[in-house]
Write a structure and sequence with these properties.
Layout lengths: L5 E4 L2 E4 L10 H5 L2 E3 L2 E6 L2 E5 L1 H14 L8 H14 L5 E9 L13 E8 L7 H6 L1 E5 L20 H13 L4 E5 L5 E4 L3 E6 L2 E4 L10 H12 L4 E3 L4 H6 L2 E6 L3 E8 L2 E2 L7 H14 L10 E3 L7
Helix pairs in contact: 6-8
The structure holds ligand PPE.
């Protein structure tokens, strides 16, 4: 990874190499943290953070679900992020706010441990590769089931919960695929390791619903809005594994992955094996929205005030 100059840590801008924690940090032992993945784009109106307020809201919601009071106001986190991007002199970057139980208390009762907050930014290219975004990636249905709401909180973006995605990701890579698709505890299609999923059948877009243990993706909301505005019908419903093999097109969305087509699932070509027309249409409009090329979605962008790099 390419380091930036500064990281925001508990209210201060500290040099990248000095943003450190103690080895007895609670979150390191028990996964007691929540985070966000956000992106800033070099848009038509200058550097701007995509759907910033939605990400900040979800960070606070995730923290609340794990009884972690964030010792800052949401607006302070938003402003700190904008200032950090400016001071790091970045025009486009990935943004990682992290809230975690810090040092001072061990054991499973975490409520006496401090809550630490940091925000990092770095340049992060296409998550599933530029080629993946263009031509699609190969995916495998994972043998690991997505965390169920009986054990954890699928709607929370919590650190420990990602061990589930990590097992699926490693399994898919070792088997020679680029991404894994997890099924939910009822055997229905859920999502990728870090992306929401959509199938195109007979010109309609189908996607799992909140009752399928998905993360309520912010790009999912954007993609649904864009697809609807383009005139596509979007249906949220239970999807069987076999439908993955019968789809004309499949694509995924996420902050890191943006909109990436899936060209193969379990060695079955999806449709023609090339990204189809619906995927392309939604992807093009989505990329335009991210880069501020569409007036209609400009209010999804939070402009970064430009400051001289210090
Ligand atoms: N599901 C999961 C499990 C998930 O982690 C993400 C984002 C999504 C769906 C899509 O959510 P959204 O970004 O709000 O549209 N995954 C983040 C973490 C990736 C990582 O490797 O770290 C991301 O894309 O930033």
């Amino acid at each position: 990874m390419k380091p930036a100059d500064l990281i925001w840590m508990n209210g201060d801008f500290v040099p990248w190499d000095e943003a450190k924690v103690h080895v007895l940090t609670h979150g390191l032992h028990y996964g007691t943290g929540v985070f966000e993945g956000v992106r800033c784009y070099d848009t038509e109106i200058g550097p701007a953070v995509f759907r910033h307020a939605d990400h900040v809201d979800r960070l606070y919601k995730s923290a609340e679900l794990y009884y972690m009071p964030i010792p800052y106001e949401p607006e302070q986190i938003r402003q700190a992020t904008l200032e950090l991007i400016g001071r790091n002199g970045l025009r486009s970057c990935y943004i990682r706010p992290l809230v975690f139980r810090g040092y001072g208390q061990m054991g499973l009762f975490p409520l006496d441990a401090p809550v630490d907050v940091c925000i990092a930014t770095w340049e992060w290219g296409a998550y599933l590769g530029e080629e993946g975004k263009r031509d699609g990636v190969r995916a495998k249905v994972s043998s690991w089931e997505r965390i169920s709401p009986a054990s954890l909180i699928p709607a929370a973006k919590a650190c420990g919960q990602y061990l589930n995605s990590i097992l699926a990701k490693i399994e898919s890579h070792k088997a020679g695929y680029e991404e894994a698709i997890l099924l939910d505890h009822n055997g229905y299609v859920c999502e990728g390791t870090g992306e929401n999923i959509y199938l195109v059948r007979d010109g309609k877009i189908h996607t799992p619903s909140m009752t399928n243990s998905i993360l309520d993706g912010i790009n999912r909301r954007a993609a649904i809005q864009i697809a609807t505005d383009l005139g596509y019908e979007v249906v949220e419903r239970n999807i069987d594994r076999s439908e993955l093999y019968l789809s004309d097109e499949i694509f995924v969305t996420g902050t890191a992955a943006e909109l990436t087509p899936i060209r193969e699932v379990d060695d079955h070509a999806v449709g023609t094996g090339k990204p189809g027309p619906v995927t392309r249409a939604v992807q093009d409009a989505f990329e335009d929205a991210l880069h501020g090329r569409t007036e209609r979605y400009r209010d999804w962008l939070d402009p970064v005030p430009i400051t001289a790099k210090v």
